[in-house]
């Protein structure tokens, strides 16, 4: 059978791996593929499938499912004569976040599309709001029943470990925006995890609240293991109900230093350097998204590779120039070929990172034709779609699709 996943931050991919393990424990084999690796002919070769898919931003497909959505789903939706095999049985797990307007938008769209092509559900679609434990338990129960084993209690995600906050420094005093802190956490050993944690540039730290809040929070890691601690950029969140964010308020509190939290490193394959280590890098982001880009810049600096162009956006240079002295130092040492810091409120006509890219369109095309890979980190609502649209305007939709297939267009948007 087929296990197909669409994952932006890596969680859907982890759950897909778990499903493969479950099948293996029952003596069955499965083919594990990202949606973009599947075409109509391949899909027709399976009689049963499990789809584990997240939604990116406001209802969009994750990057490793964009081609599947833009070609197979869109084309067959237009062509009423196109059919999936009527004997395809499937189950679908949709991952989402209710704070977005189009909750589980891509999962719901995929489910409707499969049904419209004649595929039949093994069980009703299961939706998960931000890793909600009850919904995941329902998914695991259905998965266990499907493969014919008792339960999946033995198949859990990797164990968490204690982390101690050793530093929390306000980076933007006087800013018109919410407070942003540079936070450092050191890993401690416990019975579940004695070895020192390891990670790569692009990976995430997933932290779990201790107050009964059900879902964990993911943060882009700005540091490397050689730095001896995980470095984060954390913006203090105030919800629509005026309540402070559970985890962000803990990490940025005046007495945060010494506080203990539990968490784990999450590998984020979509945002790792991968096969792009020998390429120039165009790094684009805003706000706390700088963290995920800093990790790559720091790794490149250690390797002595200065073929890097950073386009970063915030509000005011006087308050919001996060890690500005470090970026200046990298430029001074020829480890950052170009650095565009775009401060929207310092200009009479506001400019954002997407606007700067459009103004530098010829240079963007030169970098990409010269083999550059593009990494984008920041907001999935606002910056992420706007940058994607700007890049499509500059390079063309077909080029963007090809870059994504080659792993040269990678996004960590949240």
Helix content: 25-40%
- How far apart are the first and last residues' alpha carbons, in Å? 32 Å
What gyration radius follows from the Cα positions, in whole Å?
A: 22 Å
Give a short account of the largest sheet.
6 strands, parallel
Shape: globular
> Mean pLDDT across all residues, rounded?
91
Note the total helix count.
13
Strand content: 15-25%
Number of strands: 17
Explain what this protein looks like in three dimensions.
The protein has 414 residues and is α/β, with parallel strands linked by helices. Strands 1, 2, 3, 4, 5 and 6 form a six-stranded parallel beta sheet that branches. A six-stranded antiparallel beta sheet has the order 10-9-12-7-8-11. The protein is built from 13 helices and 17 strands. The model has no long low-confidence stretch (mean pLDDT 91).
């Amino acid at each position: 059978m087929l296990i197909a996943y669409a994952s932006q931050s890596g969680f859907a991919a982890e759950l897909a791996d778990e499903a493969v393990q479950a099948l293996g424990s029952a003596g069955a084999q499965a083919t594990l593929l990202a949606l973009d690796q599947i075409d109509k002919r391949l899909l027709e070769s399976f009689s049963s499938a499990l789809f584990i898919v997240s939604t990116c931003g406001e209802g969009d497909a994750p990057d490793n499912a964009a081609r599947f959505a833009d070609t197979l789903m869109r084309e067959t939706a237009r062509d009423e004569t196109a059919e999936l095999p009527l004997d395809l049985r499937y189950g679908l797990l949709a991952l989402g976040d209710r704070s977005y307007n189009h909750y589980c938008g891509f999962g719901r769209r995929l489910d409707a599309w499969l049904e419209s092509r004649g595929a039949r559900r093994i069980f009703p679609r299961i939706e998960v709001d931000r890793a909600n434990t009850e919904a995941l338990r329902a998914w695991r129960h259905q998965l266990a029943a499907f493969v014919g084993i008792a339960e999946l209690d033995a198949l859990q995600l990797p164990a968490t470990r204690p982390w101690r906050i050793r530093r929390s420094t306000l980076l933007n005093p006087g800013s018109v925006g919410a407070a942003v802190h540079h936070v450092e956490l050191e890993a401690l050993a416990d019975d579940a995890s004695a070895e020192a944690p390891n990670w790569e540039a692009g990976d995430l730290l997933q932290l779990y609240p201790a107050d009964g809040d059900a879902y964990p929070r993911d943060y882009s890691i700005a540091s490397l293991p050689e730095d001896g601690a995980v470095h984060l950029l954390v913006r203090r969140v105030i919800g629509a109900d005026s309540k402070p964010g559970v985890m962000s308020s803990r990490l940025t509190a005046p007495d945060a230093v010494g506080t203990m939290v539990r968490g784990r490193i999450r590998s984020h394959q979509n945002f790792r350097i991968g096969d792009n280590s020998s390429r120039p890098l165009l790094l684009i982001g805003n706000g706390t998204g700088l963290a995920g880009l800093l990790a790559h810049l720091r790794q490149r600096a250690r390797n002595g590779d200065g073929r890097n162009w950073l386009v970063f956006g915030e509000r005011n240079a006087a308050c919001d120039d996060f890690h500005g002295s470090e970026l200046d130092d990298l430029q001074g040492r020829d480890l950052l070929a170009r650095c565009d810091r775009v401060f929207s409120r310092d200009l009479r006509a506001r400019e954002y990172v997407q606007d700067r890219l459009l103004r530098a369109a010829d240079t963007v095309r030169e970098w990409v034709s010269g083999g550059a890979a593009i990494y984008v980190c920041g907001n999935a609502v606002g910056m992420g779609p706007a940058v994607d649209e700007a890049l499509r305007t500059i390079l063309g939709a077909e080029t963007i699709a090809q870059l994504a297939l080659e792993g040269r267009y990678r996004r960590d948007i949240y």
